[in-house]
Amino acid sequence: MNTAMTVIVLLVCSDVIYMIQGGTIQDPRCRCPTVHAGGVNISSIRKLTYYPPRSHCSKEEVIVTLKTGGLLCLDPNGSFAKKLIKRQTKVNQQRQNQRSIETLSPHTTTST
């Protein structure tokens, strides 16, 4: 057996052993192993991301990206996270409504 074939066989065997032990090739997991129970200064938040339960993670996850670049997982059942999600949902709906109004409004042109 040549060297290339030996390497391929070893890689396949190691992947099979890894999957048998409970892993997967992509190893999808929940993004938040622990959650921060308290609040965060709203002015330090750059982005809010909400993940509903998924096939590879049965938990809801709320992740804020801070302006410093750090990530912080919030307790999705906590009052602070619920307020943030409610606020973000309201902002998204207002933006969607504004886009709808802009799309439906007639564009008039005048010529001289």
**Gyration radius, rounded:** 24 Å
- Average pLDDT works out at 80
Strand content: 15-25%
| Biggest beta-sheet profile | 3 strands, antiparallel
Number of strands: 3
Q: State the CATH architecture of the domain at 29-93.
A: Beta Barrel
The helix/strand class is alpha+beta
In spatial order, strands of the major sheet run 1-2-3
Distance between the termini: 84 Å
Binned, the helix content reads 25-40%
Assign the CATH topology of the domain at 29-93: OB fold (Dihydrolipoamide Acetyltransferase, E2P)
CATH class value of the domain at 29-93: Mainly Beta
Biased composition (Polar residues): 90-112
Keywords: Chemotaxis, Cytokine, Disulfide bond, Secreted, Signal
GO cellular component, one term: extracellular space
Organism: Salmo trutta (Brown trout)
Summarize this entry quickly:
The protein has 112 residues and is an alpha+beta fold.
Topology:
Layout: H1 3-20, E1 45-51, E2 61-66, E3 71-74, H2 79-104
Task: Describe, in plain words, how this protein is organized in 3D.
Keywords: Chemotaxis, Cytokine, Disulfide bond, Secreted, Signal. One of its GO terms (biological process) is immune response. Residues 90-112 have a biased composition (Polar residues). It is found in: Secreted. This protein is α+β, with helices and mostly antiparallel strands and 112 residues long. It has a domain at 29-93: OB fold (Dihydrolipoamide Acetyltransferase, E2P) (Beta Barrel). Helices cover 39% and strands 15% of the residues. The protein has helices at 3-20, 79-104, and strands at 45-51, 61-66, 71-74. The protein has a 3-stranded antiparallel β-sheet with strand order 1-2-3, with helices on one face. A hairpin with a 4-residue loop joins strand 2 and strand 3 (71-74). The protein is elongated and about 65 Å long.
